[in-house]
User: Fold these one by one.
Assistant:
Number 1:
Amino acid sequence: MNDLKQRIEGHIEALSQFTATPGQGTTRLTYSKEDLQAREYLKEKMKEYGLQVSEDGLGNIFGKLEGTLKDAPSVLIGSHFDSVPNGGSYDGPAGVVAGLEVAALFAKNKIKPKYPLEVIALIEEEGSRFGGGLMGSRGIVGSLGEEEFINLTDKGGITTVEAMAEIGLDPSLPKKRDPKTMKAYLELHIEQGPILEEKGIPIGMVEAIVGLAQLEITVEGKAGHAGTTPMDRRSDALVVAAKMIAQLPEIALSEGEGSVITTGRLHVFPNGANVIPNKVVFTVDLRSGREEHILNMIGQVQQLVESFHAFGIKNSVQQQLYMPPKAMNQEIIALLSEKCSELNIPFCSINSGAGHDAMVFSDVTDVGMLFVPSKDGLSHCPEEWSDSQDLANAVQILYEAAKKLTEA
Ligand code: HGY
Ligand code: MN
Ligand code: MN
Ligand code: MN
């Protein structure tokens, strides 16, 4: 097991070097130089572990161990390898590395499966560059259409297609994958919360993943001179946006049942200290374990925005992502639980407050998800850390489950 722990630590350490903000966490935006570095590393390891490497028209990476059955559907194991700005080293890569090391155990034990095993490294789960998120998995299942994909641009106006070309990817390759080619999808992820650590339990068996929506609000006012424009003649977009944002927490609190709402990104235009802002664009990320709360909160945010159609202020709401809550597959949960028990690794049921690619794949195949504890419950920050012993436990569980799933 030590050897496995060391390999896991080596992968996480290596991948953490591929960041645009060295010393200030992991910033690895999709189709960036850092993406390319991580991509080369992952493809290299897939080849080393005897996998056939391919990339699709979105830049998702696949490492396939062929099965003995012809044209049989694959058991996929993986996660995403992009990050939030100044994020941690484990959110995403922990799951990709787990897939790699399950494949390494297949190779080491000379297992020739009936059904293929595929390690998958997904792009743009966070949505940090092109907005929304879950882009790699949504492209594979077809809920992100070709039109929508090629028209996505980053904040600098660069399109997905242009950005892909910059790192030598081919957007004309197939994107949507026939669901009949997928037998199951397993994902290991860090919990990103405090529950497992507080309970002292090394494995979380994910039952369900929270539903979420991401909105982008644009508030338009009128630019003006900060010194010469009287207070009663201003259409100050930032003052209006600030009043809107200040009212958001109450929307989640009044929905209750763990509903949450967050404004994580805000851009002010023209962003000059002595200029009255004429435009503000900010995000609203809202989540709940129950779909009706999400729909209620979207409605209330829209009403709030409309209520500010005051003097000279124009506002709009764009929905960038919508995912209802998703339950994991009970048979997969039973299989993963059985393997935990056989390996004497304690586990408990847990729901995910974070969104994951597993929720997208749950529409087209059987999906299961494991969590490992996050130190101090921290994630989406440089302090994010998980114990490689916990990760190694999870690899063992996934390996035993993958052996079963690729045999029958
Ligand atoms: O935002 C999320 O829940 C995930 O980290 N993309
Ligand atoms: Mn993640
Ligand atoms: Mn994340
Ligand atoms: Mn996720």
Note: The chain has a mean pLDDT of 97.
Number 2:
Amino acid sequence: MALERTLSIIKPDAVAKNVIGEIYTRFEKNGLKVVASKMKQLSKQEAEGFYAVHRERPFFNALVEFMISGPVMIQVLEGEGAVLKNRDLMGATNPKDAAPGTIRADFADSIDANAVHGSDSLENAAIEVAYFFPATDVYAR
Ligand code: RTP
Ligand code: MG
């Protein structure tokens, strides 16, 4: 497996629940290193741009409104097979379908308020990391 980087966002519901640390612990205990990190209140324009691939989907407006409803914690995770590993740790999009012990099973309330985002491919990871972090703000470790 190759060393990869992926973009992770702790969404407004999980930030409000005060579980940033618990989620970071899961990353760290599973071989993912935080190599960049910031808390941010997304503007509507930033959220729309980030989720542009979903623009035509029926849930797009609700998704954008939810993502700007409070601050989010944005991080770059680095590790062997980081993209898939993070997706495995997150669990299924709908927490009702998420396997026990996954972040969404433990912290998400609904398909909308589902605690975390994670890049879904290596190609999208590179695009998403660059969307939020200049290369100089990502630290090789
Ligand atoms: P994410 O992008 O946030 O990591 O989530 P994901 O890959 O598991 O799911 P995706 O298909 O990319 O959808 C992005 C977010 O939109 C919301 N969603 N709502 N009501 C619905 O049918 C529906 N489908 C998706 C979810 O909050 C999902 O995380
Ligand atoms: Mg997605």
Note: Helices lie at 12-16, 20-29, 44-50, 60-67, 82-90, 103-107, 122-132.
